[in-house]
Design goal:
This protein has 274 residues and is of the alpha/beta class. It is built from eleven helices and nine strands.
């Protein structure tokens, strides 16, 4: 067995107690240490020697630091999103929102996109990558997130089509948008989280009051004035929040549908004008 293969096996065994995906974590950290893509390591590990800093990277992961923060990025949809401390790490479940938008608009796509709580630009930039003629605005209350979003727009060549604004959800926004995307905080204050999340990711991007609905109560009433005719707003929800958030949206005058993620959990609410 090659040195790299042995190191991966050992690292995966060590990480089994702190990660649900120990082998994947080890492979990603090895690739990062080598400065190559993971596929290169998997195809021919014998080409490489174990880098000197691989052990220290595993040590950081053993302390529950997320892999995305260690390597500095997370792949999402068709793009790579740079992340770091102070911004929410993109989750595969959130791709449900982009998939729903693609099904709704097809190849023609929306012309104007709004992403409320854009974080590092995840949803907005994924949508702009899907529709090269679209323009977008991302809003966030974190200057750190806005800085990451601008960097990511540059990295994917969307800086001429994406604007980012420091703001408080939809407060003060004008105009109408064909597609509104939003992944707000939706975790109840009392809910326990995995150490990776609880000790590293920003609390203000995760928690939303006693029932996790505080930000929906602020966002949903603003959507009617911002949504263009025949447009759609797509909100991420927690897996148990469909009924409650649907009620908020219907009270605001929207017709609501739900899409499930790959784990078959309620994940995205689609809001349209009746």
């Amino acid at each position: 067995m090659t040195d790299v293969a042995a190191a991966l096996r050992d690292a995966a065994q060590r990480l089994a107690g702190v990660s649900d995906t120990p082998r994947l974590d080890a492979e990603l950290l090895m690739a990062h240490a080598l400065g190559v893509e993971r596929q290169a390591v998997l195809l021919d590990p014998s080409r490489f020697d174990v880098p000197a800093d691989f052990v220290s990277l595993i040590g950081r992961r053993m302390q529950h630091e997320p892999v995305a923060y260690i390597v500095g990025y997370r792949d999402f949809w068709t793009i790579r999103i740079a992340v770091g401390r102070g911004v929410l790490i993109p989750r595969p479940d959130s791709e449900t929102l982009i998939d729903a938008a693609v099904q709704y608009f097809g190849a023609d796509g929306p012309k104007h996109i709004l992403d409320l709580g854009t974080g590092p630009g995840t949803l907005l930039l994924a949508a702009l990558a899907e529709w090269p003629d679209a323009q977008g605005l991302g809003v966030d209350a974190s200057e750190t997130a806005i800085a990451f979003a601008a960097r990511n727009a540059d990295d994917i060549g969307a800086n001429q089509r994406a604007r980012f604004l420091f703001g408080d959800w939809a407060a003060g926004l004008e105009g109408q948008f064909d597609l509104i995307l939003c992944n707000p905080p939706y975790i109840a204050d009392s809910e326990a989280l995995m150490p990776d999340v609880a000790t590293h990711e920003p609390a203000d991007a995760l928690f939303a009051g006693a029932d996790g609905l505080d930000d929906y109560r602020r966002i949903i009433p603003e959507l009617a004035r911002l949504l263009a005719p025949r447009g759609i707003a797509i909100l991420e929800i927690g897996a148990t929040q469909r009924i409650l958030v649907t009620s908020l949206a219907e009270t605001a005058g929207f017709a609501v549908q739900c899409r499930r993620d790959l784990g078959n959990r309620d994940r995205a609410l689609l809001l349209t004008r009746p």
